[in-house]
Amino acid sequence: MAKPIIVNWKGVQSSFKLEKLDRTKLYGKRQRQVLDPGGERCERAELTRDGSLLIRTGMTAQGYFDGDGTWIANRELVGIDASGEVLPKVDSTLGAEQPLAGPVDPTEVLDLAVRSVYILTPDGLDPDLQKRLLAGEVFRFSFNYRADYNAETAFLVGNKSGFFALVGQSTEAPWGELETVAQETFEDEGDDDDDLDFEMF
Length: 201
Hints:
2 helices; mainly beta
């Protein structure tokens, strides 16, 4: 079981157990089963392009092959930025107290590219924070499910259905406009002798 989300607002700590919300929980799921002639369930697998390896489900999550076909385990990988510099590893925030910022402007949530939604079950919730969440106030905190190179932003929200964490990357929509705005003119420029007369066709 995952460690809890622990937040601190105005010196008071609150804790939440978390469960990821996915389409299965919302809509249920159906799965087509493929059986062999003996009635046993088949498992999906793929051959590499050269036909030398059979890759089963889950194997690629353990590491990568480089351009020379050498296997590199995930634990040996490092993150790099756009300039090629090695990024520092960010620890998991689960089980580690995170300061809450807010209440923030709810429109900040609109600038979040949401990647995950978690259902939160309070396990020691500050009554004042609970009151504010149920009133529609929004709070922001840092979130990182597991140690990696990609820390995310989370928003803590609540309503009569429960409490939730919306997790993703903050984005900023680029604003585009013309360098020179065309001016519309409606002046009568007089008769144009070059106009086509469609009656002649």
